[in-house]
Amino acid sequence: MPRNSKPAAILAIVLISYFMILLDNSVIFTGLPSIRAGLDLTPTGLSWVQDAYTLVFGGLLLLGARAGDIVGRRRLFVVGLAVFGTASLLIGLAPTGGWMIAGRALQGIGAAIVAPTSLALITAYFEGEARTRAVAWYAATAGIGASLGLLVGGALTDWISWRAAFLVNVPIAIAMIVGARAVLPETPGQRGRFDVVGALCATLGMGALVFGIIESGEVGWGSARVVTSVAVGLVLLAALVFVESRVAQPIMPLRLFGSRERSGAYATRLLYMGAMIGFFFFTTQLMQDALGFTPLQAGLGFLPMSLVNFAVALAIPRLRTRVPDPVLLAAGTAVTLAGMAWLSRAGIGDAYLASVALPMVLVGVGQGLVFAPLTSAGIAGVAPQDAGAASGLLNTAHQLGMALGLAVLSAVSLGAGTGLDGPAAVAERVGAALTGSSVLLAVALVVVLAFLIPAGRAKGALPVPGSTDTAGDRVRSRAWTS
C-alpha cells in the first residue's frame, strides 16, 4: 500500500482526469451536426466518430486495467493521460473525417488506460472511511460527467467551435501529468509473466462484440457482418474464460465473479448504463429536433438532472452511514425507473418543465443514489493485486452497457414514428427508445433485488426477514462498503 501523504491532491488529480475522460463520452453529442457539416461526413462516417471511440475503449479496458497492476499504476496513468491529450490535439486539428475518426480511436486507447486505472488508484491510496468518501466522489464524477459534457459541448460549439471541446483537454491533460508525477506515489508492479493469450482474447473478443453491437444499429441484427462479429466475440470470450482458469496471473481473475455482490454489481452496471445512454442520446434529440432547442439550450436543458445528481452525490457519504447500500441501490434504481417512464411520455405539445425537467429531477436523484454503492459493490473485498482487474471489469460493464443499450434502443426507435415526419416522428421514436430504457431499468431492479439485497443480508448490512434486528441498532450502522 503506497503511503498517502496528500490525500486531497491525489483525489483531485484522479477525479479531474476521470472527469475529462467522461466528458468526452458525451461532449460529442451536441457537436455532431457541426462536425458533420465541417468535415463533410456521411451519416455512416458521422456514426463512426462516436463508434470508433466506443469500440477501442470497450475492447482495451481489461488490458488497460491489468497492465496497471503489472507495470505500476501511476506510470500507466501518466501514459494514458499523454495518449488522451495527444489524441485530443489531433482531433481538434483534424482536416478530414478520416483524421477525426482515427483520433477518436486513439482517444479510446487513452481512455481505456485512464478510466480503470483511476479507480484502482483510489483502491490503492485510500483505506476504510477515506476510501468510502473517495469512492463517493468518484461515483459523483461518473454521474455528472455525462450530463455536464452535453452542456460543455453545446456551449463551446455555439460560442467557439466543436474543435474547442477537444482542444480544451490538452492543457488539462498536461496539468494532470505534471500533478501525477509530483504527487502520486508509484504502486509496485507485480512480478510474473504477462497473460498474453488472455489479453488477446479479452481485447479481440470485446472488440468484436462491441463492433457487432455497433454495426447492428446500422445494418440490423440479421446482417452476416453482425452475426459473424458477435459470434467471433463470444467464442473469444469463452476462450478467455478457459484461459483465465488456468494461468497463474490472469488478466481477468475468475475469482472476481465468485462474489454474488460483485457479479450483481457488474450486471446492474451494464443494464443501468444501457438505459442511461438512451436517456442522454435520445433526450438530446427530443429537445433539439422536437422542441426546437439550440445545442446550448439542450445542454442547459439537462441542468435539472445534473444539479440534483450532484447534490445527492454530495449527500451520499452521510446517507451511507444510515442506510445500507443495497437499499440505496434499490431505491435509486426504482426512482430512475419512475423518471425514465415519465420522460418517455413527452410529446411535441408538452411543456419542457412538466414533461422533461421534472422527470429529469427523478433521474438525477436516482443516479446520485446508485453510483457510489454500485461502484463499491464492484470492488468489494478485492485483494490489492486484483484492484486493477476489478475496476477494469466495472468499467467494461459500463462501456459494454452503453454500446449494447444504444444499439438495442436505436433498433427499437426505428420501428416507431411510421407514417409521421418532422418533430412528431422524432417524439415518437424518442418515446419508444425511452420506454426501452425503462425496461432495462426494470431488469436492473430485479437484479438488485435478486442478488445485491441477499448479498447485503449475508454480510449483515440488512436484517434477515423475521429477525429481531431493527434499523436503530445493527442495520443502519453498517454501510455496505468495501
- The CATH superfamily label of the largest domain reads MFS general substrate transporter like domains
Number of domains: 2
Content-based structural category: mainly alpha
What top-tier CATH class of the largest domain fits best?
A: Mainly Alpha
Terminal CA distance reads 16 Å
Assign an overall shape: globular
Rg for CA atoms: 21 Å
| Total DSSP E strands | 0
Fraction of residues in β-strands: under 5%
What name is given to the CATH topology of the largest domain?
Growth Hormone, Chain: A
CATH architecture of the largest domain: Up-down Bundle
Q: What string, H for helix and E for strand, traces the elements in order?
A: HHHHHHHHHHHHHHHHH
Helix content: over 70%
Number of helices in the DSSP assignment: 17
